[in-house]
Every structure is written in C-alpha cells, then in structure tokens.
Write a structure and sequence with these properties.
Layout lengths: L1 E5 L4 H17 L2 E9 L11 H13 L4 E9 L3 H12 L3 E5 L5 H7 L2 H8 L4 E4 L5
Parallel strand pairs: 1-2, 1-4, 2-3, 4-5
Length: 133
C-alpha cells in the first residue's frame, strides 16, 4: 500500500508532505509525491522546479521513507486527475492534499483540485492547511 501526496512548493505543500511522511512511517509504507505542471509551465507558483524536487527527495531520503516523486505534465488537464490516477495505480490506502482558501468566484471559475480529490478518491483523504504566516 502507498500514501499519495499532492505537492506544491508552498507552506501548505510542505505540510502535506510532512503529514504524508508521518502517515507512511506509521503505516510502514512508501510515499508517492505528485507535482503537476500545466501548460503555463514553471511560471505558475504551483509547479515545483527541479531544485525544489531534488531538495524534497533529499528530505524524504533523510527521513528514511521509501518514495517516488512524479513530475507530471497535465497540459490543459487538472492536477486532481494526476493525483487520482496515482491513487488508483498504486491502490493507495491514503491520499494527502493541501487546502488553500479561495473566494467563491475563484472556486466557480477555477474549481478546486483538493475538493475533487476529497470527493472522488477511493480511499481516505487527509486534508491539511498551513496557518497564514
């Protein structure tokens, strides 16, 4: 079994990975980190670059957690599709997602990847949100 975590390079993303590591350690399993890049590429703040992903890999290695980091090009798709596909493929027993506060208008136009994962995942979902700093 596996813990899948959606990752963005911000405080909520770091918290999601921290909780995924905690859960994987407790469950004695591995972690699959999903970082999605859309057609905007690295200009979008949700896309981690290679340096950030290398640092994340080093952190997971030092934590002693077996892991895989997937940098997924979703084109015009949704990050939730990449996360849910990884959950299905790995037959994950948990998925961890970070939640960000959005206005109602933002939700209507952009949707919510975390909400879709919460509603459509075939396994339990742990949603986390970093405190505003």
């Amino acid at each position: 079994m596996t813990v899948v975590v959606g990752y963005v390079p911000d405080p909520t993303g770091y918290l999601a990975v921290t909780e995924a590591v905690r859960e994987a350690t407790w469950r004695r399993t591995d972690v699959i980190v999903i970082n999605a890049v859309d057609q905007a590429g690295y200009v979008r703040p949700t896309a981690a670059d290679e340096l950030d992903l290398d640092a994340l890999g080093d952190r997971l290695t030092s934590d002693g957690v077996p892991h895989e980091i997937r940098h997924v090009d979703i084109g015009t798709g949704q990050a939730s599709d990449a996360i849910l596909a990884a959950v299905e493929q790995a037959d994950a027993d948990l998925v961890v997602v970070g939640m960000h506060r959005r206005s109602p208008v933002g939700k209507a136009f952009l949707g919510s990847n975390a909400q879709r994962v919460l509603l459509d995942a075939p396994c339990p979902v742990l949603a986390v949100r970093a405190t505003a700093g």
